[in-house]
Every structure is written in structure tokens, then in C-alpha cells.
Amino acid sequence: MIKKINYIPSYFYRNYIAPRIYSLQNQKILSKNLELKNKYAGQRCFLIGAGPSMANTDLSKLNKEYTFVVNEFERNPQNRALSPKFHIISESDYFTEDGPEYWTDSFKEKDRYIPIETVMILNIGAKPFVEKYGLFKNHRIYYVGTQGIFTNKLPFNINLNRYVPNPKNSILMCLMTAVWMGFNEIYLLGCEHSFLAQPLGPSKSLGYIHSHEDETSKLDTASEEVLKKYLRPKLINSNYEQNMANTLQLFRNYRLFNAKALKTNPNLKIYNATPDSFLDVFPMINFNDIKGL
């Protein structure tokens, strides 16, 4: 009973008060995002995830389009040829010093492989890490702040000059960014979202199937040393029920974001062009049927 009583003010603080406090504290950093507001109004863009379907999709068709990629997309063999316009990393695991060694090392290596002309959009928590290691000095960087959750019980914000709810993945952050920039025709690629088909953890898998070659697929998933290096601590002891709960929250986030974005821009169109995708929040469309490609 005491826990339930304490939960109410904590919930209200994390989702209503804290985002406002942090927005004021980091106003100078976040105000730079106003440079991007409606900069691409009325245009279309493509948000490219790391799902396995991207290994068989000819991304050269998108060379003249506005493209967003996420996380470790630089490992995709098509990255250089595509030269993405924007690269987004919103998940804090990459730049948490006491987190898995694999993620922090991967973040440091990105500077070598991401094209200089690609604009970086990072979680504001990465700023000290980026400055400490002198990363992305030749890239243009924007930072986004995340705090709280998407909920229909309290008002939430999707404007990037303030803190937004934690999206739980970088694709949803791409969507918020694209809407902020004014794109009104958005296509999702590489977003299978088949998370529940591949349980993570000891003696299971260290990561989801991607479009790029993944070194984790060849490792001993029963080794404690391997688990510590490659797996987030919270996943080492996680179970399938928790995986289901996380996936449910993610899909709910998509739905709540979509409703909010449509109120802001009734002409907004978002399509999922990923084959065999589980993400049914947005209308499905065949990639080859998109006009102009």
C-alpha cells in the first residue's frame, strides 16, 4: 500500500514536472533544434531501420531522397552509397560508460564510418560522452532530450525544443524528428518489429537479427564474460514476460504519438513499407509501389 501511495507523486513528477525542469535547464542546447522546425515542410522522407529486410532492399533508389537511419546502420554495406541525410541515436546504452563494453566501443567507432555530410541527432545524455572523446567534430550535431513516458493520462510533448517522452527506440525518435522538421509523407523501412520472435538473454540471443553482419550471432551466449560485454544488465536477468511488456509499451507509444502528430498536422501520412512487419499502427505499403522511386 505504501509503495502505491509513493508511486503516484513519483509518476506525476517523472512525467509532468521533470520534463519541464529539464527543458529549462537545457534550453540553450535544445533551442538549436528550432533551426530544423518545418525546414522540410511538405516534403517526404524515408526512415530506415536495421531490420533484416534491408539486406535485400536496393537503397540506391533513395539516393535523392531525405533519409534517416538509426543506431548501427553504418555497418550496413549500403551505408556509404546511400549517404544518409540524418543518423539518429536516442538509446542511452551506447554512451553509458558503465554499460556493456560492446555498445560504448561501437559508439566511439561511429565517427570513422558515418559520412561527414550526415547530420547527427543524439540523445542529450550523449553530449558529455561526445565531448570527452572528441567525437563527431566534423559533423553537424543536434541533441534531443527524453524524460517520462507516452501516456494518455497526462499531456506529453513531441516538440524537440523541449524534452519529449522516452520513445523506447530510435525509429520512434526518427518519427518525432521528421514531424518536427515538417515532413508530411513518411515511409518506414527495415521496421519488422518482430521482437517477440527472438527472446534475448543467457543461452538465447544477444541481439535481434539485423540487415548487417552481426558479430554477436557467433558468440557463446552462455558465457558470463560474453554476456557482460554485449548484453545490457537489465536483459541478463529479463524474462519473456518482461519482453512482452516492453513491446506492448513500444506499440502503445507509436499509437499515442500518431494520434498526437495527426492533431498537429491532419495532412500527415505515415506508411510502413517493411515487408512482413508486425508494426500495424501505420498503413502498410509495398516499397516498389511508392511513386517516384
What do you see in this structure?
With 293 residues, this protein is an alpha/beta fold. It has one domain (2-289): sialyltransferase cstii, chain A (Alpha-Beta Complex), CATH 3.90.1480. The chain contains nine helices and seven strands; from the N terminus they run H-H-E-E-H-E-H-E-H-E-H-E-H-H-H-E. The chain has helices at 2-25, 27-30, 79-82, 101-113, 127-132, 170-181, 224-230, 233-236, 240-264, and strands spanning 44-48, 66-70, 86-89, 119-123, 141-144, 185-189, 269-272. A seven-stranded parallel β-sheet has the order 5-4-3-2-1-6-7, with helices on one face. Helix 4 links the parallel strand 3 and strand 4. The chain is globular. The termini are far apart. The mean pLDDT is 87.
Please report the total strand number as a whole number. Answer: 7
The top level CATH class name: Alpha Beta
CATH overall fold name: sialyltransferase cstii, chain A
What pattern of helices and strands is seen along the backbone? HHEEHEHEHEHEHHHE
* Overall pLDDT: 87
Gist?
The protein has 293 residues and is an alpha/beta fold.
Q: How is the secondary structure organized here?
A:
Layout: H1 2-25, H2 27-30, E1 44-48, E2 66-70, H3 79-82, E3 86-89, H4 101-113, E4 119-123, H5 127-132, E5 141-144, H6 170-181, E6 185-189, H7 224-230, H8 233-236, H9 240-264, E7 269-272
Parallel strand pairs: 1-2, 1-6, 2-3, 3-4, 4-5, 6-7
Name some characteristics of this structure.
293 residues; alpha/beta; sialyltransferase cstii, chain A; seven-stranded parallel β-sheet; 7 strands; 11% strand
